[in-house]
Amino acid sequence: MTVTYAEKLARMPGYQAGVPTGQAPEAIAAGTIAQLASNESPRPPHPKVVEAIARAAGSMNRYPDPDATLLRRRLADRYDQQPGRIAVGNGSCDLLLAAASALCEPGDEILYAWPSFSMYPYLPALTGAREIRVPLGEGDALDLDAMAAEVTAATQLLIVCNPNNPTATHHPAAAIAAFLEKVPARVTVILDEAYIEFQTNDDPDASLDLLKDFPNLVVLRTFSKCYGLAGLRVGYAIGSSNFRAAVDAVRQPFSVNALAQAAGAEAILHQDDVLERVEETVAERIRVQEGVRELGLWASESQANFSWIDLGENDEATVLTGLSAADIAVRAGAPLGDAGHIRVSYGTEDEDGRFLTALAALLG
Predict the structure, then answer these.
(1) Residue 170: closest CA among 133, 196, 138
(2) Cα–chain-centroid distance for residue 330?
(3) ∠ at Cα 303 (299, 306), nearest 5°?
(4) How confident is the model at residue 310 (pLDDT cuts 50, 70, 90)?
(5) Residue 342 φ then ψ, to 5°
(6) CA contacts within 13 A on the Cβ side of 363
(7) Which residue from 285, 249, 300, 4 is spatially nearest to 103, judged by alpha carbons?
(8) CA 32: distance to chain centroid?
(9) Domains (ranges, CATH) in the chain?
(10) What Å distances lie between residue 47 and 50, 109, 226, 267, 311, CA to CA?
(11) Which of 133, 214, 308, 325 is most buried, most CB within 10 Å of its CB?
């Protein structure tokens, strides 16, 4: 007799990290490898954040605050919200998985665009809900009208990734508001804004104004990108107090460790640092996008910290192998839902220059 495992394991796609397992962190830190595969910030955390982490490290013999009181209070102050409406998690992925567990059962539907964030297919696999994937529209942007048209009586959870990962496209807050008007109030809509600070269509906080008019809306954000805290995994969701209670009920205790709480609580105070990071990223975005197009390749209109590049007649595997040989790590398009593409994060000026030079050499 053999051990059997849950059938849902067979339905899970398996997450492929942007950095190969075992890749030496010191090689990335030293600049030997241009790490342009994971949409991270090339800049380390703000010095005050590093100091806050160091102070917290001396108390690792104690469990973290289960309510993340300081972090939630500072987030509430930053966004003029009630702390009871803010949930925090071990990255935004933790909150997505918890939302699906709290909201969905077999017979329900989870709706999202595709290609989009590669964690979304885990949610129906874990809950037994049916997944509804809606193809992207023109320019590899979300087709909000098509998404609204797919809502049925069984739709329980609808996810809008904006800016969308991996295609980097963005809809302004006015378009999101018009979309929400079409969605029944019984459907929970998660607006996944991991990259919202990098877009230039709106004030990054414009979408938060929608929370007043749409009680079924949840805004999901992270410290992993523009705050430079990917290694600590801390994200947050702003929605109703009922949503926060629901996701907290289905997660393990102490889901956000003490170092992450300390880092996030300090990082949110340094919005000047965020602006500097965004300005640097936008400058590199213009450079990379223009450089790619000069090579005759198509790239979507990026409003994030990465480019989505159509390789045309060039073989994806060959391009990836050639970039790897030049010590440049980018993300393959096939695992993200669309073969024949690559997703390239913006790094330092030197790293982005290395990428463009290597890509030009590969294309001949």
Answers:
(1) 196
(2) 16
(3) 60
(4) very high
(5) -135, 150
(6) 18
(7) 249
(8) 26
(9) 22-45+271-363 (3.90.1150.10), 47-267 (3.40.640.10)
(10) 5, 44, 15, 10, 39
(11) 308
* Mean of pLDDT values over 314-328: 96
The runs of H, that is alpha helices, within the chain are 25-30, 47-57, 69-79, 91-103, 122-127, 144-149, 173-182, 241-250, 258-267, 271-294, 316-325, 349-363
Query: Could you tell me the CA-to-CA distances from 88 to 72, 83, 328 in Å, in that order?
Result: 7, 11, 33
What token pair was written down for 163? Answer: 């800016």
**Does residue 346 come out as left (phi exceeding 0), alpha (psi in the -120 to 50 range) or beta?**
beta
Answer for the pair 196, 204: CB distance below 8 angstroms, yes or no. yes
Q: Is 95 in contact with 244 (CB distance < 8 Å)?
A: no
Q: Which of 12-26, 77-91, 197-211, 273-287 has the lowest mean pLDDT?
A: 12-26
Concatenated DSSP letters of 37-67: SS---SSPPPHHHHHHHHHHHTTTTSPPPTT
Residue carrying the six token digits 């918890």: 98
Residue 70 bridge partners (DSSP): none
Q: What pLDDT does residue 203 have?
A: 95
Q: Which two tokens stand for residue 145?
A: 């009208």
Contacts 24+ apart (CB under 8 A), 142-149: 142/113, 142/116, 142/169, 142/171, 143/113, 144/171, 144/175, 144/176, 144/178, 144/179, 145/179, 147/111, 147/113, 147/179, 148/179, 148/182, 148/183
